[in-house]
Automatic annotation (TrEMBL):
UniProt KW S-adenosyl-L-methionine keyword: no
Protein known as: ABC transporter ATP-binding protein
Keyword RNA-binding carried by entry: no
Organism lineage: Bacteria, Bacillati, Actinomycetota, Actinomycetes, Mycobacteriales
InterPro entries (UniProt xref): AAA+_ATPase (IPR003593), ABC_tran_C (IPR032524), ABC_transporter-like_ATP-bd (IPR003439), ABC_transporter-like_CS (IPR017871), ABCF_ATPase (IPR051309), P-loop_NTPase (IPR027417), Val-tRNA_synth_C_sf (IPR037118)
SMART domains named among the record's database cross-references: AAA (SM00382)
Keywords: ATP-binding, Nucleotide-binding
Example GO molecular function: DNA binding
Length: 592
């Protein structure tokens, strides 16, 4: 594959910190790279150096001649006096941009609800962000760099963007750099993950799922424990690293092998025990919304909502921007009064909300973090053991040296950590999280999810972060056309009901050539895949037996050992050949 963009010996430092020291890396045609790491470790700085927005203090960035690089930064760069249409297509005549499939696809996916004649100054923050993203994607680029592109996008918009980026370029062409905290989106789009930490950039093959598996392997190797299990995991991860991201389907015997490797890992949370604790704290009555309707300025927002929230329930809420999610939370919290119906609240309910405004921090802005912590209760129960507020902060990724920072000087992610800690230490028995992933990195999200796994109460989460919803909640509801609807099929069911299924969102711009299989051909491919699955399973058993035979064989008989080793290599070659054919057939089905 042709080289597009690279870095040689990059050095970047600030007065109090060396961000990167002698970093070298490259981007080739076909690379789809996700960048992860803690806030402040240099993800955006790395992207800025590669795109030319940040000048390194040492080293150099190389580009292929004539390379076109487009970048979406987190900063709002739109001019307030510009019309939306001018930002998107400039002075291009309508007959030209209207006939461009990419322009039609991007505008339909991101800005269909925005008036093109409106001034940018009249748009909300979310609308401005979508216009800025659309203006970038409309143009032709060899490399696109996106810094938190899912900010202000709803679930449908994120799903559309993933499908667009998956098919924007033909296979093995173009390059994508992506900084995002949205792990579902990262898994859908990225085929390589760069982890930025401690002044270096460490590459991992695959998207977020593959990155997590490989990071676990790295940590286990560093600890030098579970040697046999590590060896098995290493072989399994070698399979996951091939081809598409780790979430892509694999032969059944490989899935069985992976399940065996994690068979002794306990469930992420004990739902039965948590339900008992929640009932003890809450009783049977929590919050009931009984035939509730709400309208603003004569416009109906929620209609005939019937929802009985029970003790220990963990519920995720999805819906398009403006669908009424915040209104629903207001009903639960008691800040919104319904036009009809009633809200019934249990006598023991103690509700706390982690909202997007960080209002809980307002009274502490002039204080040092350690002063805030010092005024709190002395302990908090997590996983059956007591933790001090400082230990709780550390579990959320807060460094001890940050305790001497004033609250007003904290970064967005640090403020979010402190806000979550203060919310939990209030010991509510009903916890509402409104877009909790804003301004946080993937490590913070993982730590938050780990903490919530042992939280014994009723949990309600509103988020566009699909990964988070599916990770911390046990059921999901959607707001559709003003009605609250249960989603037994999760977010996928919501996308289907909303008419925005991923397959319907696939960009029509420069599509990857499809195989065009007929019904008979597709059945033949499926039959061959099934046959390969069976063959691979048999070969797996034969290889295991051959390994055992080698282990039991007389180690002094070098001739016999050589023969057995040759037989083992032949079996492994057969596996490699069949796996390659399986991947080829699988890709044919995906493209058909």
């Amino acid at each position: 594959m042709a080289h597009l963009l690279g870095a040689e010996g990059l050095h970047l430092q600030y007065p109090n910190k060396v961000v990167f020291d002698s970093v070298s890396l490259g981007i080739d045609d076909g690379d789809r790279i996700g960048i992860v790491g803690r806030n402040g470790d240099g993800k955006s700085s790395l992207m800025g150096m590669l795109t030319g927005a940040v000048t390194p203090h040492g080293g150099r960035v190389t580009r292929r001649s004539g390379l076109r690089v487009g970048a979406l930064e987190q900063a709002d760069i739109l001019g307030d006096d510009d019309a939306v249409g001018h930002v998107l297509v400039g002075d291009t005549p309508e007959h030209e941009w209207a006939g461009n499939p990419r322009v039609r696809d991007v505008t339909a996916g991101l800005v269909a609800d925005i008036d093109w004649t409106a001034k940018v100054s009249t748009l909300s923050g979310g609308q401005r962000r979508r216009v800025q993203l659309a203006a970038l994607l409309i143009n032709d680029w060899d490399v696109i760099a996106l810094d938190e592109p899912t900010n202000h996008l709803d679930v449908e918009g994120i799903t559309w963007l993933a499908a667009h980026l998956q098919t924007r370029w033909a296979r093995n062409t173009g390059g994508l750099l992506l900084v995002t905290h949205d792990r579902w989106f990262l898994d859908e789009v990225a085929t390589v993950t760069w982890e930025v930490h401690d002044g270096i950039v460490e590459p991992f093959d695959g998207g977020y799922a593959a990155y997590v598996l490989q990071r676990v392997e790295r940590d286990r190797i560093a600890a030098a424990t579970e040697v046999k299990r590590q060896n098995l995991m290493r072989k399994e991860l070698a399979w996951l690293r091939r081809g598409a991201p780790a979430r892509t389907s694999k032969p059944k015997f490989r899935i069985d092998a992976a399940n065996a490797l994690i068979s002794d890992v306990p469930p992420i949370r004990n739902n039965v025990e948590l339900a008992k604790l929640a009932t003890a704290r809450l009783g049977k009555d929590v919050i009931d919304l009984l035939d509730v309707s709400v309208s603003f300025d004569g416009r109906p927002i929620l209609q005939d909502v019937e929802w009985r929230i029970g003790p220990g329930e963990r519920t995720g809420i999805v819906g398009a921007n403006g669908a009424g999610k915040s209104t629903l939370l207001g009903l639960i919290a008691g800040t919104v009064t319904p036009d009809s119906g009633r809200v019934k609240r249990g006598k023991t309910v103690q509700l706390a909300m982690l909202d997007q405004q960080a209002g809980i921090l307002a009274e502490f802005e002039g204080d040092l973090v350690r002063e805030v912590v010092g005024r709190l209760q002395t302990s908090y129960m997590v996983d059956g053991r007591e933790m001090t507020p400082t230990q709780l902060l550390e579990r959320l990724g807060f460094a001890r040296d940050q305790l001497s920072t004033r609250v007003s000087d904290l970064s967005g992610g640090q403020r979010r950590r402190l806000q979550l800690m203060l919310t939990l230490l209030a010991e509510p028995n009903v916890l509402v999280l409104d877009e909790p992933t804003n301004d946080v990195d993937t490590d913070m999200l993982t730590a938050t999810e780990d903490l919530l796994d042992s939280w014994p109460g009723t949990l309600i989460v509103v988020s566009h972060d699909r990964y988070l919803l599916e990770r911390v909640t046990d059921q999901q509801y959607a707001i559709l056309d003003g009605h609250l609807r249960h989603l037994p099929g999760g977010v996928d069911e919501y996308l289907t009901l909303a008419g925005r299924r991923p397959e319907a969102l696939t960009s029509r711009t420069e599509p990857v050539a499809a195989q065009g299989l007929s019904g008979a051909q597709q059945r033949a491919v499926e039959k061959e895949i099934t046959s390969i699955d069976r063959s691979l399973a048999k070969l797996s058993d034969r290889i295991a037996a051959k390994h055992q035979q080698l282990a039991d064989y007389d180690q002094s008989d070098h001739v016999g050992l050589g023969k057995l080793t040759a037989e083992l290599r032949e079996l492994e070659d057969q596996v490699t050949e069949l796996e390659s054919r399986w991947m080829e057939l699988s890709e044919q089905l995906e493209q058909a």
